[in-house]
Design a protein that fits this description.
By secondary structure, this protein is an alpha+beta fold. It is built from four helices and eight strands. It starts with 5 loop residues before the first strand and ends in a 7-residue tail after the last strand.
């Protein structure tokens, strides 16, 4: 990492098609713009919102980037489009979803971009994988560790599917 790099945490999810393959492709697609240096286990999770859709696969990764938050958002949205993401209903099924969870200790509130992710502290499907790679990291607004936030949410519906290294198999 150079002195201008920022440590970022991304959440990845998919519930259509080859979920595992798509998440692996997403991890490859975000590089080299984000130099990924840690990937959580792979989790199968119940959908949020409409329940008449397939279960999700979710993971989190940590990386370093010299991009701005807005440039990173543009990059991950381009990766989503390359992997077949199309706009659909809120909380509906999707081929891929890549969210910026944390961008260093920055707090960003811009049109279409809020970091830390607005729902980070409330979602077990994000917190379970994130706690594996950032347990002691403090949420910049709440002052609580990711581990504390994960312990405070209901983990029902979150099941480990594959351990670390799943994306290399």
């Amino acid at each position: 990492m150079s002195g201008t790099d920022t440590v970022v945490y991304l959440g990845l999810g998919a519930n259509l098609g080859d979920r595992r393959g798509t998440l692996t492709a997403a991890l490859r697609g975000i590089e080299p713009a984000v130099r990924v240096n840690a990937v959580s286990s792979l989790y199968e999770t119940a959908p949020v919102g409409p329940q008449d859709q397939p279960a999700y696969y979710n993971a989190a990764c940590r990386g370093a980037t010299s991009m701005t938050p807005r440039a990173l958002l543009d990059h991950v949205k381009a990766v989503e489009r390359q992997l077949g993401r199309s706009e659909g209903p809120r909380w509906g099924p999707r081929e891929i979803d890549i969210d910026i969870l944390l961008f260093g200790i920055e707090v960003v509130e811009e049109e279409g971009l809020t970091v830390p992710h607005l729902e980070l502290a409330n979602r077990a499907f994000v917190l379970a994988p994130l706690a594996e790679i950032a347990a002691h990291l403090l949420h910049p607004l709440l002052g609580k560790s990711i581990e504390e936030l994960a312990a405070a949410v209901d983990q029902a519906g979150v099941r480990m599917e594959a351990g670390p290294g799943w994306h290399r198999i």
